[in-house]
Amino acid sequence: TAQRGAVEVSATDIEVPAGHTRLTWLPAVP
Tens of pLDDT along 1-30? Predict the structure, then answer.
């Protein structure tokens, strides 16, 4: 769901290095 996607993006943003941003991952989330 959209809510689940938002949670996954947030979690990924924390896991990835500071050099990466959520914007980089947003396109990968439906």
Answer: 455 555 565 655 555 555 555 555 556 555
Cβ–Cβ under 8 Å, residues 13 and 21? yes
The count of structural domains within the chain is 1
Of 19, 25, 18, 21, the residue nearest 8 (C-alpha)? 25
| DSSP character string of 1-30 | -HHHHHHHHHHHHHHS-TTS-HHHHGGG--
- CA distance linking residue 12 with residue 21, whole number of Å: 9
Quote the domain boundaries for residue 7. Answer: 1-30
